[in-house]
Write a structure and sequence with these properties.
alpha+beta, 20% strand, Spore Coat Polysaccharide Biosynthesis Protein SpsA, Chain A, five-stranded mixed sheet
Length: 237
């Protein structure tokens, strides 16, 4: 669970995972949601190195006080993250035990419903090497091709939104495939990769889609916190 984002775009003085939403940090919401899904037998959280101990204390108190439901007994550990998301996942993967399946879930998508976890895990168990939850693209999408005659971006409408998808998390992987992808990334860094599915694609493995959920929005800007609060008001569980 990468949770080392800076929170700069949230106009926050603390890393994003430690920003509060309805009296609880995004990290706490995310861990509780993951536990509630029953999909995890172990959770490894990657946070900024200076916040490893505070995160351990925070989550220990959470686990001691919350009704964990199907997640009761799940081990939750905290490790120091890396310089970026891919590096943080790599460190969390190295710290994990030896699972057959791995879910990579962003702490910023802290309201992801349990059903999304279930769909991802179901596809993995059916044999898919990599699975991502997605939503259809509703906006018209254009591609920037350079600079226009007055200095603005020149745009081309050559992208068919019907074939485009918005990717969410948790992303699921056969553990051996994900480890191979990260080993390749370490030996041949690909800075343009923004998620683990891209690393797996580089090795030629297919990535399968399952349905995502609007509640699994990525909290990036202050407006996203407001939207998340609305989701919580409508579905507090």
């Amino acid at each position: 669970m990468p949770a080392a984002g800076s929170g700069t775009r949230l106009d926050s003085d603390r890393p994003k995972a430690f920003v509060e939403l309805a009296g609880m940090t995004l990290l706490e919401h995310c861990v509780l949601g993951t536990l509630a899904s029953g999909a995890a037998t172990e959770i490894v959280v990657a946070v900024p190195e200076a916040l490893v101990r505070p995160a351990q204390d925070l989550l220990a108190a959470l686990l001691a006080s919350a009704d964990l439901g199907p997640g009761a007994g799940t081990a939750v550990r905290v490790v120091a993250g890396g310089a970026d998301r891919i590096a943080s996942v790599d460190r969390a993967l190295a710290a994990a035990d030896s699972p057959d399946l791995v879910l990579v879930h962003d702490a910023a998508r802290c309201l992801t419903p349990p059903a999304v976890f279930t769909r991802v895990v179901g596809a993995l168990r059916a044999g898919a090497p990599a699975v991502v939850p997605v939503l259809p693209m509703t906006d018209t999408v254009k591609r920037a091709t350079g600079t226009g005659p007055t200095g603005g971006e020149a745009l081309v409408s050559d992208l068919d939104r019907a074939a485009l998808r918005r990717v969410q998390t948790p992303q699921g992987f056969d553990a051996a495939v994900l480890r191979e992808a990260h080993a390749h990334q370490r030996s041949d860094p690909h800075p343009a990769a923004t998620d683990d599915a891209q690393l797996v694609e580089r090795l030629g493995h297919p990535v399968e889609a399952v349905a995502g959920d609007e509640r699994a929005l990525k909290i990036t800007y202050p407006i996203d916190l407001r939207i998340a609060r609305i989701h919580l008001e409508e579905s507090p569980a």
